[in-house]
Design brief:
By secondary structure, the protein is α/β, with parallel strands linked by helices. The chain is 26% helix and 26% strand. The chain has an eight-stranded parallel β-barrel with strand order 3-4-7-8-9-10-11-12, surrounded by six helices. It has a seven-stranded antiparallel beta sheet with strand order 2-15-19-20-26-22-23, covered by helices on one side. Helix 3 crosses helix 4 and helix 5 runs parallel beside helix 6 (224-233).
Length: 504
């Protein structure tokens, strides 16, 4: 029996202008993300700085607006001074978070140069695990102060005359996690983050600061961590971070594709805590959200544990190299839809990570770079999800899974790019058996016609891409028509859909 869904879209159903930084990403000194990822001197595509041009082109295609750096867990033992100055004088260090060898060939200045080359800004994280207020202030002075002080002049002596002018700074990373070097209690972290933030904003009042939230929803201190830490940091910070990774460990695809509901609940809970602290403080500003780590992560767990336990202290070992399947791409699409739906409060987000490490882009050491399955929904959202997020009024059939009830078969959101006079509908059919006809009333978007319907689908949910073959890649959909104010699309079972409409 044919299934149907209905949706109403209207210009007046505004959620928010989407901050482009919601399509950010993340590069950590972990595995082959930096070395053999973005940087490989001697590679056939390497530029004068040793950066791989093939990787740069794929990053530029994604139009990544901001990249978080240098971690992640790595940052909690990061000595930033080791990463600047003459490369031949930089020390090698035992990197404790991932039990690897860090050569410091790439550091603050090189990464800033790379982000500029790919058209992105830097989201810099400071070490509040094994270091503290003074070191964070020194790094900020090094990066952002013009000249005439110890650390700004040190930067100039390193050949970087102009300040990097980095505007977004993370106050540590996952400080609630027992795996984190220098982990803190909520009060310990709240006090340290408050004093660090206060000092940093004296140096540069124009920066935006991100306070550490819970590492995931399963933490025993969630959401009390947010409530306690924000009571200390509220006056000085602009965002609180969220981190969440999902995996299909039970090989239950229906349950796996419902996990975006968990992401939605996480966001709503953190917003409510932020607003509680605002009310308790008699505050006037909203604390917004930086969902600066999110993705699917589980495929490589056993290999990673074996490498770190039995073969530690390698330089750039293969770690966290998940090879993503088609069903992973569907969940990534659902997570992107969730972020767009919360664009009124989620102002930044980072797909973690960008190259080789749980990443949309993979590289062969002396070969090419290629696109994982998850590259495509990220590409489409970043390219076509700029503008005003519109709240869809959606009526869809539902199903239950092992862990969730009333899971809608269709999840969807619309984005209106007023400047381009285009409307984009993102939709996932997570019904694994049936196609669904989606009928959209586009209301006051009179005169809009179909530009294209992009579909990502595959008969094999476990299909993955490789350097040799793009098994999962987008194609043109042929089953969408526009009749006046009605758009009718046949959304194939288990599919990611991008329906673009524009003025005729």
């Amino acid at each position: 029996m044919q299934k149907f869904a209905k949706m109403v879209i209207d210009k007046d159903f505004r959620i928010s202008e989407i901050d482009k930084r919601v399509y950010g990403s993340f590069i950590e000194h972990l595995g082959r993300a930096v070395y053999e990822g973005i940087y490989q001197p001697g590679h056939p595509t390497a530029d004068a700085n040793g950066f791989r041009r093939d990787v740069m082109e794929l990053v530029k295609e994604l139009n990544v607006p901001i990249v978080r750096y240098p971690g992640g867990n790595f940052v909690s033992s990061f000595v930033w001074e080791d990463s600047v100055g003459p490369v031949e004088q930089r020390p090698k260090r035992l990197e404790l978070a991932w039990r690897s060898l860090e050569t410091n060939e790439i550091g603050v200045n090189e990464f800033a140069k790379w982000t500029k080359a790919v058209g992105a800004d830097v989201m810099m994280a400071v070490n509040l695990g094994t270091r503290g207020v003074a070191d964070a202030c020194n790094l900020l002075e090094y990066c952002n102060h013009l000249s005439g002080t110890k650390y700004s002049d040190l930067r100039i002596s390193h050949g970087v005359k102009e300040p990097h002018n980095i505007k977004v700074w993370c106050l540590g990373n996952e400080m609630d996690g027992p795996w984190q070097l220098g982990a803190k209690t909520p009060v310990e972290y709240g006090r340290l983050a408050c004093e660090t933030a206060k000092a940093m904003k004296l140096i540069d009042p124009t920066i935006e600061l991100v306070s550490c939230g819970s590492s995931n929803t399963g933490m025993p201190t969630f959401p009390q961590w947010e409530a306690t830490t924000l009571e200390h940091t509220y006056d000085y910070v602009d965002y609180v971070s969220l981190h969440q990774y999902f995996g299909n460990r039970d090989n239950d695809t229906e349950d796996f594709l419902a996990l975006s509901m968990e992401m939605d609940h996480f966001i709503k809970t953190v917003i409510s805590v932020c607003d509680f602290v605002k009310a308790k403080k008699r505050g006037k500003k909203d604390i917004n959200l930086s969902f600066d780590e999110w993705n699917v992560w589980f495929h490589s767990d056993a290999e990673d544990d074996d490498t770190m336990k039995n073969r530690p202290w390698q330089h750039a070992p293969a770690l966290l190299e998940d090879h993503y399947t088609f069903e992973d791409a569907l969940l990534v699409g659902l997570m992107l839809i969730t972020l767009i739906k919360h664009s009124d409060r989620v102002k930044m987000a980072c797909l973690a990570q960008l190259v080789n490490v749980i990443a949309p882009i993979m590289t062969e050491k002396d070969g090419g770079a290629w696109k994982q399955t998850i590259y495509y929904p990220y590409l489409h959202a970043s390219r076509f999800g700029r503008g005003i997020a519109l709240q869809p009024v959606l009526a869809s059939s539902k199903h239950d899974t092992k862990s969730y009830t009333d899971v809608t078969d269709i999840d969807s959101v619309a984005v209106w790019n007023e400047e381009a006079d285009e409307l984009t509908i993102f939709a996932v059919n997570r019904d694994l058996k049936d196609d669904i006809v989606l009928t959209c009333d586009i209301g006051n978007f009179e005169g809009y016609g179909l530009i294209e319907h992009i579909v990502l689908e595959c008969d094999d949910l476990k299909a993955a891409n490789s350097a040799l073959r793009q098994t999962v890649a987008p194609k043109a959909g042929t089953e969408t028509k526009v009749d006046g104010r009605t758009v009718t699309s046949n959304l194939h079972k288990a599919s990611w859909n991008v329906i673009r409409l524009g003025r005729k």
